[in-house]
Amino acid sequence: MSLQTVRFALKNAFRKKLIASLSIAGIAIGIALMVALSSASAGFDSLLDDSIAETLGDVQVTEYNKDISISQLPKNITDIIMSIEDSDKIEAISPEIFVLGFDQYMANISLDSGGFGGAQMPFVPINSVGVNIINDAQFEGPTTKVNNGSIFVNLYEIIVADFIAEGSDGLFSIDKEIDFMINFTYSIKLRTVGIFETDEDDPTAIMDTNIIMSIETGLALNSLYLPYEQTGYNYVNIRFNSASVNETRGYAEQLEELEPKMDVSITGEFLETAGDLLNNFSIMQTILTVIIIVAGGMAIFVAQLMGVNERMKEFAIMKATGWKNRTILFDIILESVVIGLLGSLFGFGIGAGLLFLVQMGASETFMKITWQIVAQVLAYGLGLGIVSGLIPGIRAASVKPMEVIRGL
């Protein structure tokens, strides 16, 4: 095929500028939607993969058939857990207290003024726990990430997440005492002694534990808050040296056989379920995108078919002057490919621009454009052009010059 043939095709692609522009716009809308949905799916997938890798062997146990807030495991629960057959696979273990009552401060904490990740939230969930510093360090927990102030030493001392301190308008600042209300009857003083750093690149970190204290402080507060004295742990976090969720399930079964009987939850199982939901979302977004893009492709097909019918005399003259069938077919397909690729590139630009605006507004997002998305965009544009131009091209190439001339 000569360069002249290519130039001829490029010129004819925009012979009817309005129809060509509408075809490009239709494809661009579909591609922009595909880029937005695919980048969200890719971001979620990456986030889940990272989370699964980090929590592959993580297990949490609570008292059997009890809510975590009223669960009570015995003081020697660590020794009981270490009695399982595969105890050598346990890398870390941390009995903890689920501390009640801190939800009374939810109205005092927000991220409206540029808190965690620049998110705009009127309030944040408060998750408060009592931990042993040594056990928490095994998980590289919040007590290992204090970057302002110090770790708690005395009773009724707490450390808080950085975004809690920033969003509380000074309520949870270093050495500041707060009145912790007990069942709306009386209060005790709690003092913030440290602020720990959180991962602002992880959008789920805002749901993690954000107020930490000693086991003794947690037990003391819950015993005041509850109608009975709490003497045991609410739950135990365990980390196994595990290569898969299935392997972790085997260790969980050993825990379920212990006495006292315990409920065992595997973090990786929840993430696998989320992964299944993400796969369903990906399938639905692919179907939706294909439908929209095919609708745009139909615009190319109809425009090309109408154009071929109007140009039958032109094709007859071309064949009479020596143009071959494959050259005419190539000309029509190239016209369609040009429109398809332009629509795809415009759509990619729109989708990428929207993602950029979202990132500018939210500061931290999980969306990302991968090379697979770029390849999909080009493949859709090329495929639509070839398929949409094939039938009109065959019709143009099969014209018989003498019949067209007789019909004039």
Summarize the structure.
This protein is an alpha+beta fold and 408 residues long. The protein has 12 helices and 10 strands. The protein folds into 2 domains: 180 residues, no CATH class; 184 residues, no CATH class.
Question: Which key terms come to mind for this protein?
Answer:
elongated, 15% strand, 408 residues, 52% helix
Q: Report the total helices.
A: 12
Share of helical residues: 40-55%
Quaternary assembly: single chain
The gross shape turns out to be elongated
Output the structural class: alpha+beta
- The H-and-E topology, N to C, reads as HHEHEEHEEHEEEHEHEHHHHH
Strand content: 5-15%
Average predicted confidence as pLDDT: 83
Tell me the span between the first and last alpha carbons.
Answer: 30 Å
Task: Report on the biggest sheet.
Answer: 10 strands, mixed
* Total beta-strand segments: 10
Give the tally of structural domains. 2
Low-confidence stretches: 113-119
Give the radius of gyration: 32 Å
